[in-house]
Specification:
This protein is α/β, with parallel strands linked by helices. It folds into 2 domains: 123 residues, Rossmann fold, CATH 3.40.50; 34 residues, no CATH class. 46% of the residues lie in helices and 18% in strands. Helix 3 packs across helix 4. The longest helix is centred in the middle third of the chain and has 17 residues. The protein is globular and about 55 Å long.
Length: 165
């Protein structure tokens, strides 16, 4: 399942498609090839690529991803999304949720692209914590310096600060 000009999408790919069997699978934000083609190509090298966009497709990627894993037994799964996108976040959570649904450990890696230029590996636990806003709020209250980091990346946060002054 090579991707020259277009790649297949998670939602429109048969869970038992032959290229998925035993593959090293890359599940990437659909906009990544536009946001940063170099990072996309680097991560896609020697992998079977599936694109996904939770904003465009049904929000139930976790079930589809779990079905792909169960039916095709990929060797590994790499998920990469755009950091700060509320839609992309659900794709990261979907890979963790698929692992939970199947009840077994997956060979997986989570990455985000920061400010369209920097690739950062994140832990599955970072994704898990992000789902629990009361925990995130506690982290902010205990370490308000994280808001300085947020200000470097988030236009929405900068505007909210400006509007509250």
């Amino acid at each position: 399942m090579e991707c020259k000009n277009t790649c297949p999408w998670v939602w429109s790919t048969w869970v038992k498609a032959p290229p998925l069997k035993g593959a090293d699978l890359l599940i990437a934000s659909a906009c990544l090839p536009i946001v940063n083609p170099e990072i996309f190509e680097k991560l896609a090298k020697n992998k079977t690529v599936l694109l996904a966009c939770p904003e465009r497709e049904p929000p139930t990627h976790y079930g589809k991803i779990a079905s792909i894993i169960r039916s095709s037994e990929p060797r590994s799964i790499t998920v990469v999304t755009i950091d700060g996108s509320p839609h992309c976040f659900t794709l990261q959570a979907s890979v963790n949720e698929a692992e939970y649904i199947l009840g077994r450990k997956l060979n997986k890696k989570h990455y985000v692209v920061v400010d369209s230029s920097e690739l950062k590996e994140i832990s599955p636990d970072a994704v898990r914590v992000a789902r629990y806003l009361h925990i995130v709020d506690s982290v902010i209250r205990e370490n308000p310096k994280v808001l300085k980091e947020l200000e470097r990346h988030s236009m929405e946060y900068k505007q909210s600060k400006m509007l509250s002054n």
